[in-house]
Amino acid sequence: MTGLPPDPHAGQPVLTAGAPPAQARAAVLLVHGRGASAQDILALAAELDRPDLAYWAPQAAGNTWYPYPFMRPLARNEPWLSAALRRLGTVLGEITAAGLPPERTVLLGFSQGACLALEYAARHARRYGGLAGLSGGLIGPDGTPRDHAGSLAGTPVFLGSSEMDGHIPKERVAHTAEVLRGLGGEVTMRLYANMGHTVNQDEIEHVQRMLAGLAAEPMGGGVGV
């Protein structure tokens, strides 16, 4: 596409909520889905009911992180995909600079945002405070190489999706679980019957438990010897 900027998401706003970083027990990086907004996903902070945490929600240009379905060839979604991954890295850097490093930060995304958060964590494997992919999976067609370096080092991972999601095949969710386990993640996967492309109460409660466990850890802790 001619005239496309090399970094389409650069300069987009990042919304925040919750506790000031200096007082927060942990951080949550919220990644919105296709056609939604940072404001939309930031509303999830109220559902999670953890006012002691700090929340960051970056905005995608045009409300879309990349234009084509997530299982298309990777090159088809460039340069948007690389720009979106860089954007998550930039925001994580800002969260770290505010005093909350990755091991005290949970990456949480829904739909396209879940795909992006999961892909970022796989490509940049290290200990995170947690990883939650709600109705999402790793990006790229079947057979995409997943030989990523690094280790999630016991990062708690939650994957939740419908058994019959028209956007997210359950087979891709299961493959994502396998890859993240191979990278050292402590993965829980739940596939729900008779659920649409949405977030249900069980998923909210699982993320709440993840956040409670992280908030209970001593500051500077989270990784064993």
Structure description:
The chain is of the alpha/beta class. The protein has a single domain (14-216), classed as Rossmann fold. Helix content is 31%, strand content 18%. It has helices at 38-42, 44-48, 80-97, 112-123, 170-182, 201-216; strands at 14-18, 27-31, 54-58, 105-110, 130-134, 156-162, 186-192. Strands 1-3-2-4-5-6-7 form a 7-stranded mixed beta sheet, sandwiched between helices. Helix 5 (170-182) links the parallel strand 6 and strand 7 (186-192). Helix 3 (80-97) packs across helix 4. It starts with 13 loop residues before the first strand and ends in a 9-residue tail after the last helix.
CATH class: Alpha Beta
Rough shape? Answer: globular
Please count the beta strands (DSSP E, at least 2 residues each). Answer: 7
- How many domains? 1
CATH-assigned fold name: Rossmann fold
Gyration radius over CA: 16 Å
Number of helices: 6
Named at the architecture level, the CATH assignment is 3-Layer(aba) Sandwich
Topology order in helix (H) and strand (E) letters = EEHHEHEHEEHEH
Give the proportion of residues in helices.
25-40%
Strand content: 15-25%
The overall pLDDT, averaged over residues, is 94
How far the N terminus sits from the C terminus, by CA atoms, comes to: 49 Å
What structural category do the secondary elements indicate? Answer: alpha/beta
